[in-house]
């Protein structure tokens, strides 16, 4: 009898072990930190596995699958949850015993909130608007007294989207975790990090941290915090439907992707607030996401021009000479930048007296040449000069210590305006200590002071845009006894850096500021002014400005990863995005700079920028780079009306400008990880060169009609599939336009100011049906506060072919109130000028047109027979007439002509 009992217990224990065992590809790390061993693991009531796996990232210590909370009470969409008894322990904190879960279905988006009401939540004012869609989710939840899990399915297909039955739910005050099985390994997003591929890899366990930090991106060490935080991803399901998920939290956080495929999310505060977007098309997912978080700002038209900057200009003369050198090389350029060199000892809202005294006159000169000026500013205000003095007088707030006994009195008492305050002092670029404006101040005084400083400074120096740097916020030498700036001979004194206690009562200062750290950049941008370009970003930052990918390096791998970065930030709702062309850190090479200028012409934010002490890398330095840049920039400027229309449409409706290829060709699996090429909108495919020493590039064209638009093979058909495309250094990189498209463009000048006065053209590409496109147009300068009252034009183009007739329809979808209406920007009056449409260029046109018989709105017209022609060998029709179409008259217009089918049935005749 005893033997039977022992055997029975052994069987039960064996079953228990079998139940608890989790395959190596589906685990949740119980001790996600170095130094885990069996003793520590078992003391946390977790499972230890001594087995050695080929994948060294497999957790040896992992949570049992029944880790989490029990459903204590279930009522409609609200659940009360209770921590399971004898469950595995939280590795860093003690789980809260009772929490709640709430599920809200808004018909278009689904929200799941888990935690304790009243805990910190980000203060970013999201619109949380929901678009109309026929797609919906369903939620499956177990019964009372069972382990709390939830499964989210797509109602139309039954496809699982989230499945938390993997276990691992933890909820402590300062350590929160949730995990889920994923329906796919095709996951895109989460950032800001350097990703070596567009699609996340699920071949092993990989952790990506998300904490805003002043740290240069390094593709060779990618698993690090960078400047911004975007806890959002897009998933592509097995049937090619797409969904999105936002995890709304501003605390330091991280995700781990596992081979399940599964996802583990961890954060150290706040709530678990999950919002699911149904799509089902990838572009619809982003539109729904941006409707929820806020659509992006429309940049000024000049901001689409080429821009040049460098850190380390010794004086204004060097700036003038460099810009003049670029212009003399006939390279289109719109914006001159000044880095911190222009300031008086690096203080915001100052101008260096010795070397920059004529800056205002130079700004006026730039403006006369149709150019613009952008200046850098940091959220670090030296505490012993006029700007800080005005801030104190206006009762502006600055980041403070929680208690007086935390204040570093040895530095606080050096300055009359900070003595007897709790203002936290730190070290950044200025010679003396700085304070950080607190833009979470519920009073308007801080933002009012900040904006007033910009207005006062603009009276001294008429700049056109601001470049926000160091806004994580960044500080130098914190907790260091010999910070790097002690060795800076230019500094007048070795000022003591910020000292943050790492242990004891004072170490708890980080609560609550660590909860707001990641969102500081958003609040800073919200208080900014015109045309901000922002380094640190958070969810919804795109509503106020663009972004560049930070202090990259002059390496080929940085060029390559920038292609992925600009696509990811379009997923995050920041379409005005770019990287420092030719690389910021280090010395660039002639070939790298040439290829980067060719690629950078297709960044929405196109700026060359490099570090202090490095050799100049302006494109005029090398004749071949100057030639390649000139050609690339001229192409960019030619198609700026299209790029601007994409940005305008996204500001109105949401979506992407730089678009991953799979967004347009979702059913083609070859596009699902095609990160090294991208699209402008739905029409234009760009295939960059990202390898050294090559004269061709491998690219993939999905199955549809494609035309090359490079000069040497303009209008020729490109074969779908993977091909090796010609890409010599003296030619534009491969660019293709899809059939069935109408693209607006303008002949380029040396600035966007001049280009905007040129007549419009449209490029029509023939596909399998009608061709369509759009054009938005405004004054290019005004700030959009509300599109409902904003003065702009929007036209829709449609080109239709029949057996004997071709017809172009131009339909005004929105018309400006008055063409002559004027606006005030920075005190200057600018008008809304709309050029005429003078050129219609059609490629893939296999008809013989009767150019002598053309009708505009049913009235016969004569075109310019010397410039207009039909090329049967290239299937190209060019129609030219000065003032052909006055598209600003507010009326629908029709241009038509007769034709007959050519004898050649092949597009290659």
Automatic annotation (TrEMBL):
Domain P-type: residue ranges: 15-65
This protein's record includes keyword Hydrolase: yes
GO-annotated biological processes: carbohydrate metabolic process
A cellular component annotation (GO) from this entry: membrane
Signal peptide (UniProt feature, chain positions): 1-17
InterPro entries according to UniProt: Gal_mutarotase_sf_dom, GH, Glyco_hydro_31_AS, Glyco_hydro_31_C, Glyco_hydro_31_CS, Glyco_hydro_31_TIM, Glyco_hydro_b, P_trefoil_dom
GO molecular function, a single term: alpha-1,4-glucosidase activity
Subcellular location: Membrane
Primary localization class, coarse: membrane
Pfam family, one: Trefoil
Keywords: Disulfide bond, Glycosidase, Hydrolase, Membrane, Signal
Protein family: Belongs to the glycosyl hydrolase 31 family.
Protein name per the record: Glycosyl hydrolase, family 31
Organism taxonomic ancestry: Eukaryota, Metazoa, Ecdysozoa, Nematoda, Chromadorea
